[in-house]
Amino acid sequence: MTAKIIDGKEFAAGVRAKVAEHVVRLKEENGLVPGLAVVLVGEDPASQVYVKNKHRSTVEVGMNSFEHRLPADTSEADLLALIDQLNTDPTVHGILCQLPLPAHLDEELVINSIVPEKDVDGFHISNVGLLNTGQKSMVPCTPLGCLMMLRDHHGSLSGLNAVVVGRSNIVGKPMASLLLRDSCTVTIAHSRTKNIEALCRSADIIVAAVGRPEMITGDWIGEGATVIDVGINRIDHPEKEGKTKLVGDVHFDSAVKVAGAITPVPGGVGPMTIACLLASTLTACCRSNGLSEPEGLTA
Ligand SMILES: Nc1nc2c(c(=O)[nH]1)N[C@@H](CN(C=O)c1ccc(C(=O)N[C@@H](CCC(=O)O)C(=O)O)cc1)CN2
């Protein structure tokens, strides 16, 4: 068997197109323009690229983008003051602080200072609680993107066995909650899980979000399973000296021979993260104005 490749770039383009259509309608019918504020503290090179891409994509779908770039030595008090200002700005419907933050800033404190309704990352403790109790919440963008691709591929996820490898607050745990909500039987596996290979082999769906390059090889995967690879790991290029290569948490070449469907890295889950951020900003704007939510763009 050779797996179907789930093209995240194409899927994300579709999500952005749907968001753009809704934005036009919101403007015409309600005189509203959704606004997204992104806060970047410091000069982490990868974060700078992600923030630039977020700005470009936000503008492309017709939303307002408010970018705040702060120096690496910004004090917690100054950052909290900015968030406070964004919390009460009626033109801002979504706020996020690009992670990781510099070490002197308390990530939890900063995230929890964003009002939950504008927390488009879905990391605020209230949104975590709402998601885990099956209530309406803002949902983290990467798991939301994975869910959209899984629903598209399978139709219904009900009754499927899903193994989420990785227990991070940003991906593993919310992914498990979302799959459970769609009536999957969910297991979260991690570094201490016994017989992890056999567990993965029994899964209809594997979501790999462990942060270890190419850990999940073809022999961990059951024939025909769907494999969603969340990993983004830069490793030394095996053939080109001095060059690097981006790989996932799944060993693609062996996995593709066994899986039924698989997301590549790059070009799989990654592009969905920003597309879902736009979708969540639209959702936040609709909710805060008492309008019905865009169909197919939320969990
Ligand atoms: N506040 C947040 N911080 C971070 C998040 C997040 O969701 N919210 N996620 C990541 C970074 N991230 C978005 O912020 C992100 C990561 C990767 C991609 C992406 O498109 N990746 C490409 C490859 C890119 C490359 O060549 O390096 C792919 O997988 O195809 C988009 C967004 C951490 N911080």
From TrEMBL:
Pathway: One-carbon metabolism; tetrahydrofolate interconversion. Residues 140-287 form the Tetrahydrofolate dehydrogenase/cyclohydrolase NAD(P)-binding domain. It catalyses: (6R)-5,10-methylene-5,6,7,8-tetrahydrofolate + NADP(+) = (6R)-5,10-methenyltetrahydrofolate + NADPH; (6R)-5,10-methenyltetrahydrofolate + H2O = (6R)-10-formyltetrahydrofolate + H(+). Keywords: Amino-acid biosynthesis, Histidine biosynthesis, Hydrolase, Methionine biosynthesis, Multifunctional enzyme, NADP, One-carbon metabolism, Oxidoreductase, Purine biosynthesis. Belongs to the tetrahydrofolate dehydrogenase/cyclohydrolase family. PANTHER family: C-1-TETRAHYDROFOLATE SYNTHASE, CYTOPLASMIC, C-1-TETRAHYDROFOLATE SYNTHASE, CYTOPLASMIC-RELATED. This is Bifunctional protein FolD. It comes from Amylibacter marinus. The gene is folD.
